[in-house]
Amino acid sequence: MYLTSIVLHTITGVACFVGVVMLVARLRDHDSMRPWWWVYILSLVFLVLYMVTAIISHWGDLNDIERIAFPALGLLGWYMLFRAWQAFMEWYVPFDGWQYRLLGHVGFNLISLIEGFIIVAAIDLHAPDWLVVIVAVLGIVGGSIFVGRLKATYLETKPS
Question: Residue 109, exposed/middle/buried by CB under 10 A (0-12, 13-18, 19+)?
């Protein structure tokens, strides 16, 4: 059950990443975003469900740092679902500045997906704990800069 959950979690994580990227790439064409919402939200729902299943089925084999990191990533997954819903509502009922706010929500999730890939890879490669923390912090900083540049690139002015 663990291996199946991990494989499905990874596949849905990649699908979710593709969905986020395609939403951002179509930000200036509201209607062309429609099919990518299905990819993004459904894959995110299954990503979280498979992750929780993997954590529960593998709990006895986790070390101390993994027993902290994996549940924290699980909580992050549930918060990502909340942010995805907020992003969808910005798109579904667009008010002035919807694109800027949507980028904030999907940008958070994009950073979170990349962080998940980085943290799990570092742990699986048996990186020292201090290196996992440094890589995670650098991922957040780099991702925040990237999302800020996306906002500046796609949107001329911040809404009031």
Answer: buried
Running DSSP on this structure, what letter comes out for residue 155? -
Specify the pTM. 0.81
- The contacts of residue 117 (CB under 8 Å, 6+ apart) are 13
Structural domain spans, the chain: 2-154
DSSP 126: T
Q: How far apart are CA 69 and CA 122, in angstroms?
A: 12
Amino acid 156: pLDDT: 59
What is the identity of the amino acid at 158? K
Q: Are 23 and 40 in contact (CB under 8 A)?
A: yes
* Positions in the chain short of pLDDT 70: 155-160
> 118: Cβ–Cβ under 8 A, 6 or more apart, which residues?
135, 136, 139
